[in-house]
Amino acid sequence: MVCSCCPPRLSRHSKQYRRALFAPSSRSSWLSAVAVLVLVWIYLNHSGPNGWPPGSRHRPPPLHPHHHPHPHPHHGGYQPFPPFRPPPQPPATDDTKEPPPPEPTMTLPKPAADDAPSSSTSSALPIPTAILPQGIYVGATLPASNRFPKSIDAFRGIPYAETTGGENRFRPPVPLPPSNYTYLATRFGPTCPREAKTDKDSGEDCLNANIYRPAALVGNDGFLRGSENGTTKGRPRLPVVVYVHGGAFNGGTGKERNMASFVAWADAPMIGINFNYRVGALGFLPSALTAREGLLNLGLRDQQLMLEWVRDNIEAFGGDPDNVTIMGVSAGSHSIGHHIMSYAQAGKKAPFVKAILESGATTARAVFYPTHPRHLVQFEQFLLEAGIPGVAEREVFARLRELPLDTIVKASRAVWDMYVDTVTWPFQPVIDGPNALANSSRHAASSPAPTVLPDLPINLWRDAKHLRIPVLTGFNTNEGTSFVPTSADTNEDFREFFRALIPHFNDADLAALEKLYPDPVKTPRDEDNPYRTVPKGVGRQFMRLDAAYSHYAYICPVLQTAHFLSRSGDGDTKAPPVHVYRFAATAARGTANHGDEGNVVSHDMDSLAPADGPKMPGLLAVADAMHGAWWRFVVSKTGDPNEGAPDGATKWPAFVSPFSRDETDPTTETADKGEIAVFGDGNNERFASSHHGSWFSRAPEKNPGVPVHASALSDFERQACAFWWARIELSEGFGVRGQDERRGPRDHSEDAPGPVAAVRAKL
């Protein structure tokens, strides 16, 4: 039934996290705004305990006679609007451990019981407010506590683009139109639908960001101290760090890293941001059809729109658009590597000036053409799982846009499950440049789009077609333990894993691989074999596979970034500073696994010092050192993590590549090259604290280890990287040797890991 008394619903904004409070006729009068808010509160109290009727589709006249909200251009009809009362926060996880925000000092509807503010909240706290072209956003203040050494202003769920649902599904992100409405930005917005089952916290209105800054920036008028009408006139601008989440391009959310904690524990003021972007099939659906439609790499385009949104809007929060650092882990780090390449070709200024890449690089894992046989197979499997096999090509995306979201997500997950064990993951970034359709009989895109990845990443490195910016990058000791099969027990298991991962690995490649990583089963009494000791419950090849896959997918790509950047000086152009780290503190399985550094970097006290958990003073010292280096890099105009370090701190040497310009030559030129910082060497407090006899026969004693020390790359690391770098073509483009000679139309379907014809036969 149509409701005749509901407040207006702004259809161009998310139904869960952009709640219109009022439409001011004059932004100069804050008192008038408060008065309107009070009236809204009175109205809501009279509308009953359920607030706005959730089933309403009515759009009443605008609140102001001269204000006409723009209808959402691509919203597939109005959706039910939720009650005004903010929903309870999701269950506590590693990515949502910020304290509940206090109530603003203005009169607002009371939050739900489980969202009650901390008793330490001061009633005198000013209301953080930001005026943007797209609207006015009212945040909340997170009070200082044992978790946060200082109060932090939080603006959550701020949209940076239109919904990705309806006609916007499988299309590039759409910027938001102007608005003068005001929105409550105190709760996280929806996350993007991912490979896990859909839930109440995810949806297609997911392109939103969370912004954190020191609370001291805000005056009692709700605007920046020293500002005039919300402008930043006469005020120094703060450095900004934007976090790009990981998740194999099939999962993850922006809030996985506690950026409020990152900002709160930094000794210098800064602004921290995390955000969501599309993942899985909704964000990365490579195929010949997708390429022709100009719809490749949508998740990367979401990221670029977000970075450009930060450039255009961050001054309203007190940030400096000319001092933005992007930081990411895993897929987020791969993404940053792609942006370092992309913006060098874009003909416009990059919206960032420094980068932190944790466990990832543009050359990491596999970056294929959209017409690579693996992607062709996975695309057709996706259509089959979505229930639309055999649809005429011109109708495919129209049908996909009509399907229920749950159908799309389940199909995406089903295809993911087919490939997760072999780590040949679907729905990945692909090359979308001029040669993207080299395996197709049709070359013209019907909807031309800007190029994100114009060429093979290794070609862009070798041709110096990349940004020359300061970079902090590194890896964890055991990057592969989270991915390789735990059951691998024989040498044939070892070989078969790499045959599936890299189909064009030939017998000579496999023989060289076996020599580089000797078989612990063949020589079980060889005490020099580093892979002979394995955790309980896993196969005898587990640590051998971990070492080889770690080098292939993460460590050597990271070092390749450092190699090319540190040697990118040319004539009068000096190479930018590069700093490389290794994270060595052990956790599950007694290893330093992929992603283990995340809570250490953010200095997340819920993880490092839980109230009822074990004491880990050594890991806290590692966090002090690591987080300190990260925030100093963000603040420094030159990207130097040593700048402003306390007296007596270990100096982190800049990385100088031990490789010649022919990156496959492992010969060290001088003894002082290839230095890195090692964080947490010998620390096992997380592993020892969580030990229940499941990994080794008895629990080890806790060892605090060394917070940080400098080290040089080993001979083995140089040899391993020389091996993988010499074979990088097998994981790029079409995954075959000599690709430069093959550019142009060619049918590679015979190279497929599973023949395309076999899938088509099922359709």
Automatic annotation (TrEMBL):
Keywords, ordered alphabetically: Hydrolase, Membrane, Transmembrane, Transmembrane helix
Ranges annotated as biased composition (Pro residues): 80-91
Keyword Protease found: no
Keyword Transmembrane helix on entry: yes
Comp. bias (Low complexity): 105-126
Location of the region described as Disordered in the Swiss-Prot/TrEMBL record: 54-126, 641-669, 735-763
Top-level taxon in the UniProt lineage: Eukaryota
Biased composition (Basic and acidic residues): 660-669, 738-751
Compositionally biased spans, kind Basic residues: 56-75
TM region(s), chain numbering: 21-44
InterPro entries in alphabetical order: AB_hydrolase_fold (IPR029058), CarbesteraseB (IPR002018), Carboxylesterase_B_AS (IPR019826), Type-B_Carboxylest/Lipase (IPR050309)
One MF annotation (Gene Ontology) recorded for this entry: hydrolase activity
Pfam families: COesterase (PF00135)
Domain Carboxylesterase type B, residue spans: 139-657
Record-stated family: Belongs to the type-B carboxylesterase/lipase family.
Protein name: Alpha/Beta hydrolase protein
